[in-house]
């Protein structure tokens, strides 16, 4: 995922004297803490945390969720290695880089099973496929999006030599102007970039090849020692997350109300807030039959492209880092009970 990839610092992990932000109300002495780190502190982009708090699902599991500061330049894998984090949200490239470095890392749950990265064109453009970009100028939101464009071009037997790549910048007005002024034929970016472009008056279409989108965007990972020593806590955390994720499939309006209350700054523009949440629901709701299930074949399929464009140096056997034992417990709950919880919350709050 574009906005979470970091250059891994895989030397000796040292203790980090960073403050821990406590999520939600003051926790009972009876609750056990799960320290987690993810790309945003609290956001509709990861709505299952907000929903799980609102419906008390984490507390029901005997868990207090503490979020570590998310804006650290330190790779998230090091928060696991030094013991500050029990569980971390990382993207597929970070996982594979950690595996290559010999870190005893385990993917325990796929949070986003579709990558948010992609290729956008103006809705008024004649370009309908990445193959149509040959000979044209294409934009990158930042240089981090270069690999996204490279993989997309490669899917159509093109290379970066067949186009002219320019970094456009991350500001919404700038991205919109690039399409409005026709300075680029397409832009490589991710979900928030598309929302920013639309918020500035430009309708877009996505022409993302499956070779780009069909990969885990973000996953939950834990080290061997947590998988073995904190299995009950991890099971409870993932079960609460799965139940909260399900709420979006039966009552997205309730999720929206919870998000408005929890992170009002994302709803200053109600239309933007709603679109932001809808994009998050599209990405966060599992496409597998079981919530968060681990897609072994997908992890195998994505590695050749990552090797070709320098994200990883060698491939790894998915069985070495995929830990499926948490998937069944994460799905051990009643949809009817969740539906009843949602309606009870709705009657009290809407």
What is the top-level CATH class of the largest domain?
Answer: Alpha Beta
Compute the number of structural domains: 2
Let me know the largest β-sheet. Answer: 6 strands, mixed
What is the assigned CATH homologous superfamily of the largest domain?
A: Periplasmic binding protein-like II
The strand order across the widest sheet is 1-3-2-4-11-5
Structural class: alpha/beta
Ends distance: 35 Å
Shape annotation: globular
Into which percent range does the helicity of residues fall? 40-55%
Mean pLDDT: 90
Radius of gyration: 20 Å
Give structural notes.
The chain has 350 residues and is of the alpha/beta class. It folds into 2 domains: 2-115 and 216-349, D-Maltodextrin-Binding Protein, domain 2 (3-Layer(aba) Sandwich), CATH 3.40.190.10; 118-213, D-Maltodextrin-Binding Protein, domain 2. Helices cover 40% and strands 15% of the residues. The chain has 16 helices and 11 strands. It has helices spanning 47-54, 57-60, 76-81, 92-100, 146-154, 172-180, 191-199, 210-213, 224-229, 231-250, 252-262, 270-284, 296-301, 303-308, 327-330, 335-349; strands at residues 21-22, 32-37, 63-67, 87-91, 105-112, 118-122, 137-140, 164-167, 186-189, 204-206, 218-223. The strands form 2 sheets. Strands 1-3-2-4-11-5 form a 6-stranded mixed beta sheet. Strands 8-7-9-6-10 form a 5-stranded mixed beta sheet, with helices on both faces. Helix 5 (146-154) links the parallel strand 7 (137-140) and strand 8. Helix 11 (252-262) crosses helix 12 (270-284). The longest helix has 20 residues, at 231-250. The chain is globular and about 60 Å long. It starts with 20 loop residues before the first strand and ends with a helix. 45% of the residues are buried. Residues 1-28 have low confidence and may be disordered.
């Amino acid at each position: 995922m574009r906005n979470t990839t970091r250059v891994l610092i895989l030397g000796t992990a040292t203790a980090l004297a960073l403050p821990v932000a406590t999520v939600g109300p003051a926790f009972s002495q009876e609750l056990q803490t799960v320290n987690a780190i993810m790309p945003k502190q609290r956001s509709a982009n990861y709505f299952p945390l907000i929903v799980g708090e609102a419906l008390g699902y984490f507390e029901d599991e005997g868990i207090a969720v503490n979020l570590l500061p998310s804006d650290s330049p330190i790779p998230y894998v090091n928060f696991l290695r030094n013991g500050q984090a029990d569980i971390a949200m990382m993207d597929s490239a970070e996982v594979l880089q950690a595996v290559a470095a010999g870190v005893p890392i385990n993917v325990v749950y796929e949070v986003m099973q579709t990558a948010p990265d992609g290729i956008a064109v103006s809705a008024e453009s004649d370009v309908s496929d990445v193959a149509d970009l040959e000979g044209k100028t294409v934009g990158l939101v930042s240089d981090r999006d270069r690999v996204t464009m490279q993989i997309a071009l490669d899917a159509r037997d093109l290379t970066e030599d067949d186009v002219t790549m320019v970094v456009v910048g991350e500001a919404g007005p700038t991205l919109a102007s690039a399409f409005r002024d026709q300075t680029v034929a397409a832009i490589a970016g991710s979900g928030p970039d598309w929302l920013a472009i639309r918020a500035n008056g430009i309708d877009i279409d996505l022409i993302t090849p499956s070779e780009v989108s069909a990969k885990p965007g973000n996953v939950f990972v834990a080290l061997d020692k947590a998988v073995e020593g904190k299995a009950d806590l991890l099971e409870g955390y993932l079960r609460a997350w799965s139940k909260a994720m399900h709420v979006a499939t039966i009552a997205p309006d309730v999720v929206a109300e919870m998000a408005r209350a929890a992170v009002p700054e994302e709803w200053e523009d109600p239309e933007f807030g709603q679109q932001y949440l809808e994009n998050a629901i599209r990405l966060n709701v599992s496409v597998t039959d079981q919530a968060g299930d681990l897609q072994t074949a997908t992890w195998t399929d994505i590695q050749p492209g990552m090797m070709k464009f320098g994200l990883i140096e060698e491939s790894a056997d998915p069985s070495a880092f995929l830990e499926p034992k948490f998937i069944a417990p994460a799905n051990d709950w009643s949809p009817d009970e969740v539906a009843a919880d949602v309606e009870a919350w709705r009657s009290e709050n809407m």
